[in-house]
Write a structure and sequence with these properties.
The protein has one domain: Rossmann fold, CATH 3.40.50. The chain is α/β, with parallel strands linked by helices. Helix 1 packs across helix 8, helix 3 packs parallel to helix 4 and helix 4 packs parallel to helix 5.
Length: about 250
């Protein structure tokens, strides 16, 4: 896979999940990677070491993506450290399960602060810098099948992901004249650190995977493959779109 550019920032890469797989996938495809982390420096250091072992440069960027100013500063830091970002992958996310009638204003703000405002802050800052350098770039937003499909106890999360989808589409429209594409990747049930303990329960796993036509949970690498494609030269005519990575769940 030939990438559009060889410099990328991946947010939310400090876990054994989608962000880590995306960072490694892009490094394998030839990118130097700015690894954003928030909670786990040790995992970020380990990821940076793996990227370096692939012969690519890795820099660490720390920020609370729920803080718009910090999110913007992280993009600037990554842009300057790598000599100009060509690719941005917004992946950092916050999920909380709570019945609609019990969601507080603080709950809403915490979820939307990371999932929507954080994406907006990162994407706008990256796009501004891309445009100032003459245009051209790739922005990929890791969303969720919940951007278009409701789930119980997730009203605030679902609303944030629906916002990500429409933000990406609006950005794609306005940034097209600058040669910047903007797309979403919408994962379904992906086995990561967040849900691995739940999927280890045989009854829960069977119930969760019963509606999935491919009859398995996805892997972070499944999602990374879609992101790498959208960051590649071959996806130059794809913008404002969503690639759904859910094993067929939403078509069943």
């Amino acid at each position: 896979m030939s990438l559009f550019a060889n410099t990328v920032l991946v947010t939310g890469a400090d876990s054994h999940g989608i962000g880590r797989a995306v960072a490694l996938g892009l490094a394998k495809a030839g990118a130097d990677v700015a690894v954003h982390w928030y909670r786990d420096r040790a995992k970020a250091d380990d990821l940076a070491a793996q990227i370096a072992a692939l012969g690519r440069r890795a820099v660490l960027v720390h920020a609370d993506m729920g803080d718009a100013a910090a999110a913007r500063a992280a993009v600037v830091q990554a842009d300057e450290a790598l000599g100009g970002l060509g690719i941005l992958v917004c992946n950092a996310a916050h999920i909380q399960r709570k019945p609609f009638l019990e969601i507080t204003d603080a709950d809403w703000d915490a979820v939307h602060g990371v999932n929507l405002r954080g994406y907006f802050a990162c994407a706008q800052t990256a796009a501004q810098r891309m445009v100032r350098r003459g245009g051209g770039g790739r922005i990929v937003m890791v969303s969720s099948i919940n951007q278009a499909h409701a789930s119980p106890d997730l009203a605030h999360y679902v609303a944030s992901k629906g916002g990500v989808m429409m933000l990406a589409r609006s950005m794609a429209l306005e940034l097209a004249p600058h040669g910047i594409t903007v797309n979403c990747v919408a994962p379904g049930t992906i086995e990561t650190d967040i849900n691995r303990h739940m999927l280890a329960d045989a009854e829960f796993r069977a119930r969760k995977l019963a509606p999935v036509p491919l009859a398995r949970a996805g892997t972070p690498e499944d999602v990374a493959g879609a992101v790498v494609y959208l960051a590649g030269k071959g996806a130059g005519y794809v913008t404002g779109s969503t690639i759904t990575v859910d094993g067929g769940l939403t078509i069943a």
